[in-house]
Amino acid sequence: xxxxxxxxxxxxxxxxxxxxxxxxxxxxxxxxxxxxxxxxxxxxxxxxxxxxxxxxxxxxxxxxxxxxxxxxxxxxxxxxxxxxxxxxxxxxxxxxxxxxxxxxxxxxxxxxxxxxxxxxxxxxxxxxxxxxxxxxxxxxxxxxxxxxxxxxxxxxxxxxxxxxxxxxxxxxxxxxxxxxxxxxxxxxxxxxxxxxxxxxxxxxxxxxxxxxxxxxxxxxxxxxxxxxxxxxxxxxxxxxxxxxxxxxxxxxxxxxxxxxxxxxxxxxxxxxxxxxxxxxxxxxxxxxxxxxxxxxxxxxxxxxxxxxxxxxxxxxxxxxxxxxxxxxxxxxxxxxxxxxxxxxxxxxxxxxxxxxxxxxxxxxxxxxxxxxxxxxxxxxxxxxxxxxxxxxx
Length: 393
Prior knowledge:
This protein is α+β, with helices and mostly antiparallel strands. Helices cover 55% and strands 15% of the residues.
């Protein structure tokens, strides 16, 4: 009899599967923690940017208020300039009336004979000269002040507008980063949740199939034991040779093979149940979850014939969640072959099947996105690698 995985090997595989699953979940949770941390940092940066923008808005309001004051001062200065211009114009006109200029005025002054008249005219001349100088100096000072105030207000307004624009742009970038981090966190959380759901689904499917096979194994064992106890024993008559046994459930070999051989002797000589492409290896991690493959998935065209790998008897032919339309053949000595994901099964429970006989057609009844056959071999309810037994074409 060929060696199958022992209990310790099964336990080791289970522990390795659990370790792989825990590592995947730990990695996913780590990615989610990193994404959550990045999101927190983005939110803190946005909060700081909002505070800075609020402060800039306050400064901008103050600058606008100052600008309003400067405009009011400018308007007042413009009024003063207009008054000074009028005053200076009147002063110059008075000088013109008085004599038209310094030379003419001195000539007029020296022609006077009355000393009092001369003194009065000198006083008027000094007054006009001083007033003209003060008017010109005041006008020049106000013009310079107006230019300074206007320039300062424009520079301050431009500075605040520039800073506000830069911070507003920075806030937009931070908001985009926040949205990106939030989206990444949501995707990772969804991935982790989907991963958990898929792992749980695969485990439930595996448990269903394991319970079914164990139940069938127990039922067959009880049946063999019962039939052995019911077999009549005649004194002096030796039991029939095993090679001539016609009972499909004999105690030595539950199913007859050519030349009295057992299923275990066919290791490496069994034909593939269907022509197609091998999509996985036994024991390799499944891409859609943390569990491992307990059998083979062979991609094949829909409607392709599924053939029995050896003589056997149908012990299950029905739909099973996760495996679709499933057929299980008993080959004796606690060996079973399983054929799942079928479009249809063509045999019923109790039918005796010959090697190479069509028992089903390929489909995707388990909800698998690929069309093909899911195939397992089990001994005493435990799965083992079919590639050591079957030649996949």
